[in-house]
Amino acid sequence: MDKIALITGITGQDGAYLAEFLLNKGYIVHGIKRRSSLINTDRIDHLYRDPHEPDGRFFMHYGDLTDSTNLIRIIQSIQPDEIYNLAAQSHVQVSFETPEYTANADAIGTLRLLEAIRLLGLTKKTRFYQASTSELYGKVQEIPQRETTPFYPRSPYAAAKLYAYWITVNYREAYDMFACNGILFNHESPIRGETFVTRKITRGVARIKLGMQQKLYLGNLDAKRDWGFAGDYVQAMWMMLQQEKPDDFVIATGEAHSVREFVEKAMAHAGIEIEWQGCGVEEVGVDRADGRVLVEIDRRYFRPTEVEFLLGDPAKAREKLGWAPKVSFPELVRMMVEEDLKLAEQELLCRNHGYNVQVSHD
Ligand code: NDP
Ligand code: GDR
């Protein structure tokens, strides 16, 4: 019998990569998507087949992590072998503006899924993956961060994910469930949400290069992150659920770079060399060739409490799962810039023919 997986957050970056990965492994994949006034399935449309065709292996269900009865009904009808809980209000800065909703979806949403598994008598059948995060480490306690590093969340998002982390551990211990936390460090791709810093930069660089945008406005350039490629990271999620025993794993590259370095590399891939002038919020990134200001600081993008430095130690994942990242930092930046250059060219073409393309204002 083919395995059945349920992915929450299937319309997001990781959901799209994971769905493709599992379909290629022969799984039947079900996903939960939210109702929205505009179509929100761009990232997975290429996987979707007309439901009228026979032998469908990919199914979508309307649902929401804030709606218990909906989750229970979906899980009851699917009887999944594996659930990947990727759905979340995943933007750290937005969580300061919507803390209650973030807690509801990210913390209690996880509890709702675990309870659904328990209520439906699926604790022995259904394996559970929780999308935990390096944001749990927050204020630096130890470098690099590993599974044993103490947590110190620095945002409503991270505090909600802390609850989700521990409730997953608790259900594993209390009910003997196969439930795992993947403590994933930042992972990016050409389909990364446009308001996360990497994609904002690569998209901005591409548009500056093609003369469609003057400047890039950013916040803290000195924050450091351990950035990997999302395609590599979804494989680790699956590997965790194939182990003999459930456990928690850090997934990271073991290499950290600053936002500033990301900007420099992305610009360089587009053939622009920048130098930094001034300091603090007055600092600017200037095109060496013609002195144009291409990067400016905007206070709006500073967070009330910042996470300055995340660097993961993936040794346990390497040893126990046999997992290692394949895409390096320069390859990741290049891949994202190249894809955004292609998109910007398409957008320019549309614009020149009188069509408007939707853009983010963050
Ligand atoms: P995205 O923001 O790209 O995707 C989030 C997904 O969750 C979307 O499909 C979104 O739907 C859905 N969603 C949001 N709220 C709800 C809700 N209330 N009910 C149902 N679905 C909802 O995130 P990523 O793919 O980048 O991340 C996946 C998970 O991994 C998240 O939980 C994130 O917090 C976590 N994580 C991500 C890391 C990263 O670097 N990417 C690192 C560590 C953890 P819609 O499309 O309709 O908005
Ligand atoms: P993060 O990702 O908060 O690490 O959460 P994000 O890309 O939003 O920020 C990374 C760092 O860049 C700094 N920064 C900016 N960030 C944004 N978004 N926009 C800016 O203009 C900007 N300028 C500087 C930030 O201050 C921060 O230090 C991501 C999400 O995917 C979470 O869901 C996930 O849990 C963690 O990664 C691991």
UniProtKB/TrEMBL annotation:
Keywords: Lyase, NADP. GO terms for molecular function: GDP-mannose 4,6-dehydratase activity; NADP+ binding. The keyword Lyase applies. Its EC number is 4.2.1.47. Residues 6-336 form the NAD(P)-binding domain. GO terms for biological process: 'de novo' GDP-L-fucose biosynthetic process. The keyword Lyase applies. It catalyses: GDP-alpha-D-mannose = GDP-4-dehydro-alpha-D-rhamnose + H2O. Its cofactor is NADP(+). Catalyzes the conversion of GDP-D-mannose to GDP-4-dehydro-6-deoxy-D-mannose. PANTHER family: GDP-MANNOSE 4,6 DEHYDRATASE, GDP-MANNOSE 4,6-DEHYDRATASE. Belongs to the NAD(P)-dependent epimerase/dehydratase family. GDP-mannose 4,6-dehydratase subfamily. NCBIfam families: gmd (TIGR01472). This is GDP-mannose 4,6-dehydratase. The gene is gmd.
